[in-house]
Design brief:
Blueprint (H helix, E strand, L loop, with lengths): L14 E4 L14 E2 L11 H4 L3 H4 L5 E9 L5 H12 L2 H14 L5 E9 L6 E7 L4 H12 L10 E11 H16 L5 E2 L5 E7 L4 E6 L6 H13 L1 H11 L8 E10 L5 E7 L6 H10 L9 E10 L6
Antiparallel strand pairs: 1-2, 1-3, 3-6, 4-5, 4-6, 7-8, 8-9, 9-12, 10-11, 10-12
Helix pairs in contact: 4-5, 8-9
């Protein structure tokens, strides 16, 4: 790896990057300040964190990336020291994630925590933004950060700790579900008014959807939109999981308008949501936008109704 030159500390907050890569093996690069948060796998603080080569490795199914940015009043040398100490808990933080992934492989996302070191006492850790929506995982990681040894570090000080978590099992589950759904032929029906429609989803996991077009001639567009939603089904199922956190009722429907043009990705816009969790609308919108599949045929505007329900085991 080429040598990285340390950057001069800007007047704003200093940001330090520590990335803990999953698939590239052991990490041994020195810790260097950076002007902004980066997402570069393979750059980390192992050599300055007290972690050995074995500890820097992570299971091939999990990927935890750590980056930190300083809070106002925290200098560059203090930030580097904090980064090394937090990096020293990465083995335990990865263990938190791997324990959750074994039971819930769809848990992925970004977690940002405010790590404040007061004049005396243990670190104060608070969630700034939770993109994983898993209470067990957040509690475990928070507990490990509270155990960081901050002896001899200049106080007060603080940083924002950002963790990006993903795993190959999640991708496998998503791909398995997508292929299973695609193997089923899209069955288009025509109602009494002459409108084409098709249904799909995964009822056992509380997700159904219905795509409806105007007139018989909308059938190809209905098929394209149906396949678009089928490709997005793992993500839509995860949106339902998030809607059910904190024992909330995930039941409700999300209305979507889809614009189909042959040879282009299907455009979508969420128009309404009756799910109690307000962020479900944003979650569904984000999932549908990420689908890159192009419509094989069809053209026109269709509507979809995504229904979330309580499953038998809830």
């Amino acid at each position: 790896m080429p040598r990285t030159r340390a950057l001069r500390r800007p007047s704003a907050a200093v940001t330090t990057l520590f990335a803990c890569a999953a698939l590239s093996g052991a990490l041994s690069s020195p810790v260097v300040p950076s002007r902004a948060l980066a997402q570069q796998p393979g750059v980390g603080g192992v050599s300055g964190s007290g972690m050995g080569q074995g500890e820097a490795r992570i299971s091939a199914r999990s990927d935890v990336r750590l980056s930190m940015e300083s809070l106002p009043g925290t200098g560059g040398s203090t930030m580097s020291a904090l980064g090394a100490r937090v990096g020293g808990r990465m083995a335990q933080i990865r263990a938190c994630y791997e324990g959750v992934v074994r039971e819930r492989p769809t848990v992925t996302g970004r977690l940002r925590l405010r790590f404040a070191l007061p004049a005396r006492g243990r670190p104060d850790v608070a969630v700034e933004s939770d993109g994983v929506n898993d209470r067990e995982l957040v509690r475990c990681i928070t507990r490990e950060l509270e155990r960081v040894d901050c002896e001899s570090i200049h106080r007060p000080a603080g940083a924002v700790v950002q963790l990006e978590m993903g795993n190959t099992a999640a991708a496998g589950v998503a791909e398995s579900e997508r292929r299973g759904q695609e193997r089923r032929q899209v069955e288009v029906t025509v109602d009494g008014d002459g409108n084409a429609s098709a249904t799909g989803g995964n009822p056992s996991r509380g997700v159904r959807f219905t795509v409806t077009g105007r007139g018989r001639e909308s059938a190809p567009a209905v098929v394209a939109a149906h396949r678009h939603l089928t490709t997005a089904l793992p993500g839509l199922t995860d949106c339902r999981r998030r809607a059910a956190r904190r024992e909330q009722d995930p039941s409700g429907e999300v209305r979507v308008v889809l614009q189909v043009r042959a040879g282009r990705p299907v455009a979508s816009q969420v128009t309404r949501s009756t799910v109690a969790e307000e962020r479900t609308r944003t979650c569904v919108s984000r999932v549908l936008r990420r689908v890159e599949r192009r419509a094989e045929a069809g053209s026109g505007r269709v509507e979809a109704r995504i229904e979330y329900s309580i499953t038998a085991d809830e």
